[in-house]
Batch of 4 targets.
Target 1
Amino acid sequence: MYPLGLDGGRRLVRLVELEESDYRAAGFLDKHHLKQFGAGYWVDWMAVERATEAIPAQCDFIFHIGHVGSTLLSRLLGVNEQVFCLREPEMLRALARSEFAIGDGRVVVDGAPFERISEVFVKLLSRVWRPGQRSLIKTTSFVSDMAPLLMQLSPAAKALLLVASPTQYAATVFRTEIPRDDVRGAARERLARLHMRLPERAWRLDDLSEGQVVAMSWLCGIMALSEIARTFPERASWIDFDAFLQQPEGILAASLSHLRGASSDHEIEQIIRSPDWGRYSKDQRFPFGPDSRRRALTDSLAGNAAEIAMGAAWIEAARRRFAEIDEVLNSVETVYSTA
């Protein structure tokens, strides 16, 4: 029974029945991608809350800045039998939006504080199919802002922080219309989230070029991930997307080691030889392997050079203006490749 929705006014939780193969196939565990499972069941919040009392909150997370291969990484790590992957659960997205919109003192179910509601859903998402497994939750990018709470609710949680250089990120976004539309659609919210981390509101969205909007979106994500790394230095591990494409075996081995201990060469070979590596991770009907990814990024860098340069200049101006930004960028510039 997968928790797909919450009606706070009626104090009901929406559950749908999924098989293990459904989790494996789904690129996103949200209402749009799970609509074929129907309306499901609406269950009283108190019954769900009581049912989770004996469930330990023990899961791990992939936090990321968006459009940096997090879905692919999740699919590949999920080849390992001990890793049960959930990609972009609907309720974590809803809770993150609620936290951002309502602020301190927020309540999304009458009488139940936000932290308790979050704990119930973290416990539900911690369930696995067999002994020896542990859930790995690949969140939506803006869920990174509530990562400190999620890491506290699962006290032994490990986190993978997936990033790319601003240039590589921009090249990925400009590669096709889908990520460009996503960045445009979320730009106002991302700018607001960035301003929340600064002493003043410094920019108007309407004044930014498309390349600057992409750069701002990258910076918003980096600021959120850096807080996770700073707060949980022993439990968070950075991954550079470009390094992942160049040396997947090493990154996969390091990721599994961080999550659950050392992995064997045979386990890594199984992952590299899996069909996931050669398919488009969000829609596996389409082939899209490492060579295709690299060629697409190279073409995008060349075709969008002017806008990418405007974005890079905007980031440099932002770090000169705000010590908070400069401090974060100084701490993370060794994480990602600038090649």
Target 2
Amino acid sequence: MKPARRPWRPIGAGLALLVLGLAACGGFPEITEPVGTPLLPDLVAEPPVDLRVTRLDDGTLEARFSSTLVNIGEGDFALRASRETGDWAVTQEIWYSESGAELHESRADLAFAGDGHEHWHVRRVAGYSLVPLDGSGTPVENAPVRTDAKIGFCFYDHTHRMGFGDEDPRFDVHECGEEDATEVRMGLSPGWADVYGFNLPGQSVDITDLPDGSYRIWAEADAEGWFEESNKENNTTWIDFELTTDGENRFARVTEVGPEP
């Protein structure tokens, strides 16, 4: 059984759609009347890699892993956010095949730092959770779930992962904004991936008191259903692993890998 998630649904009619016919403020690209058909993104999580067990100085044991989000859709996964005080207003850009775009309001929120990069992140744009498996390799129903410590993604064109899309990146890490920023825009082009290595803060689940056994780490893109995509059925994948102990050392060995983009 995969982790429960909130189904995607359009935001209410009063909030669903903003179409602007003039230049946006600051560094935001101009939004003009849309022409053609919408080019939606398709945000997919790759199965976690580089799984390992790490013991911290205070004795805490962590299962650490690298995580990746990929856009396999026709359109950019692009968000813009602005604020006057402490609260961010977030919108998703939906670009059209011939020209122009629409802005759709989102319930997403931003958080600062969290991985040593000192910039803004979209909270929980991807989520990771650890559950036990039974003897048949099936997740145990109603078992306690352990979630990752990651604060969020500042996503940008990190790696050209797929065989389509522009060869050169169009979204840069510097667009994620410094702490005093009042405008932020970040995105992931079609065919591009954003990668967070296992050595970054938050790329972990606490397993200090977890007994030896079989477990699964779920990876899910847009678990909260905050964004519009062309396909919501491919957002979830996983890895299964065996947790063992040898003296004072603990080990995690991957046994099965879920769907890849």
Target 3
Amino acid sequence: MSQARTSREGGGTRHPGSDDTGDALAGSLRIAVTRLARRMRSEKSDDSMTLTQMSALATVASAGPLSPTALAERERVQPPSMTRVIAHLVERGLVLRAPHPSDGRQVVIELSPAGRDLVEDERRRRTAWLAGALETLDEREREALASAVPLLERLARA
């Protein structure tokens, strides 16, 4: 099978040493993880927020105050795009601009109490949905997923 065809069907570029079984697993896993992530994102409570805005808010919640440049880097978006995201979040009262602790020319973005409440509500909502979905699985299936969590975390760091 050609590399181009394998890439289309398996969902990725072939790497040296990969085989058709590994490519098939990679393709299946990519599709399943993407669908699960999409389904969990659909559980958001605020339809006026884009996924990019919600992601930026969650990043500030977990990382703490960040400069707009650092936030753009973490979110893997261009700084002008992040500037628009931040402006929307400030307008909604979800984040605050504060003076940078060591560089008076810069600001840092930090969560407001309303932003923290929204992030916590989103996490609770998605966790509740996933817990309910897990209840539809039998014990053996839940154990298989539990044993896969460390592997998935390792893959996410690769």
Target 4
Amino acid sequence: MSNAPIVATPNDAGGWAEVRAHDRVVRYLRSGAGPAVLLLQPASSITPLWPEFLEMIAEGRRVIVPDPPTNEKEAEEWLSALLEGLGVRNITVVATDGFCIAALERALLSPEQISRMVMVCSGRGSESAIDGKLAAPAQSAAIPFLVVRRDRSAAEILPVVEAFLRR
């Protein structure tokens, strides 16, 4: 990693902006106003998040959706560069799929950057992922996080996530 300056710049390409940090350039879209929420979801996600979930997150918040890396093995370094480049502290992170581990690792390494986290798990396969529940709250390194199951309906998930984000 270099000591190159960390820069955030607007870009004319369809509302995209970009940050440069640690020899990386990360593009992102942003919308809304209020507390920042970072949505981490692979571009090629087979099962996108519930539309109602996305609407609920956007209500009264500034949503940041980065252009994800193509290689999930680099996700933690990429996320580190993005958060440093944005210069945002105490951001809420919503992570799906392969980004859950990277977001959790970032939260443990730099707890001052992330205020809370929602991890959306596939919910497929063994019920033991979160003991057959639709959601499970937890806390690590003083950062509250919530694990929700993607195989549950939006009607089940939304009230749980909304209550978690409001506390």
